[in-house]
């Protein structure tokens, strides 16, 4: 029986994945990389900032030092934070708040499992923190998805067994991570069919058979 639901943040509860793309595109343009596309951006979903940078750099022809890469990642994060400055509850994806309220009314614990180091800021600015019991984010972990660490940390903080948790994700890396943590998975977002999760829905505003999912 499911006692906790662990949500990814970017692309599941909030539309910040668009801002990540914009910020990486700004960095790519500065570096003279004009081939970085939305398709490339799909490979950045759920993976760490440094791994996401490698996706951008793979579209250019140059080799960079570790120090240069650190500077580039920081530069992207500054672009991203400028975009986040305008963030408020309007960034919450349709159906997210109703879903969180419904789950809490059933006594289900709510966790966040995001590799983003900006997760606490995003939860505060959107007001979503009000509905969240525990946060596991990029500040808590050393390995990003598809490693299960971020979800294991979330379950540990919620004081639940891994098998008692359901993961809600929009990225392939996240679904693989959820499975590796022995958790059931619900795939959402534009790619939800390709994710091959245990359960699927285009978004949290779509029909989801929570009765069945929570009872298993
Ligand atoms: C999320 C996004 C990734 C991003 C990662 C790190 O998982 O889906 O695209 O690279 O967070 O985010 P951060 O805010 O720490 O740079
Ligand atoms: Mg995501």
Automatic annotation (TrEMBL):
Keywords: Magnesium, Metal-binding
UniProt-annotated binding residues for substrate: 8-10, 24, 52, 76, 114-118, 145
Any GO BP: carbohydrate metabolic process
Cofactor stoichiometry and binding remark: Binds 2 magnesium ions per subunit.
Catalytic residues (positions): 8 (nucleophile), 10 (proton donor/acceptor)
Binding site for Mg(2+): 8, 10, 169-170
Family: Belongs to the HAD-like hydrolase superfamily. CbbY/CbbZ/Gph/YieH family.
Protein name from the UniProt record: Beta-phosphoglucomutase
């Amino acid at each position: 029986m499911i006692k906790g639901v662990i949500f990814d943040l970017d692309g599941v509860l909030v539309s910040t994945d668009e801002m990540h793309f914009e910020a990486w595109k700004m960095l790519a343009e500065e570096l003279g990389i004009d081939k970085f596309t939305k398709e490339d951006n799909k490979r950045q979903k759920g993976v760490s900032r440094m791994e996401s940078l490698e996706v951008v750099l793979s579209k250019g022809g140059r080799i960079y030092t570790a120090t240069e890469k650190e500077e580039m990642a920081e530069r992207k994060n500054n672009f991203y934070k400028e975009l986040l400055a305008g963030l408020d509850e309007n960034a919450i994806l349709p159906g997210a708040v109703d879903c969180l309220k419904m789950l809490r009314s059933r006594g289900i614990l709510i966790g966040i499992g995001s590799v983003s180091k900006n997760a606490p800021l995003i939860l505060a600015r959107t007001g979503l923190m009000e509905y969240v019991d525990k946060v596991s984010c990029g500040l808590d972990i050393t390995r990003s998805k598809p490693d299960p660490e971020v979800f294991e940390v979330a379950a540990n903080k919620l004081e639940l067994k891994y098998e008692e948790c359901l993961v809600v994700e929009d990225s392939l890396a996240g679904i693989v991570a959820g499975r590796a943590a022995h958790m059931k998975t619900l795939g959402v977002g534009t790619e939800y069919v390709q994710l091959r999760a245990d359960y699927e829905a285009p978004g949290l505003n779509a029909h989801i058979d929570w009765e069945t999912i929570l009872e298993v």
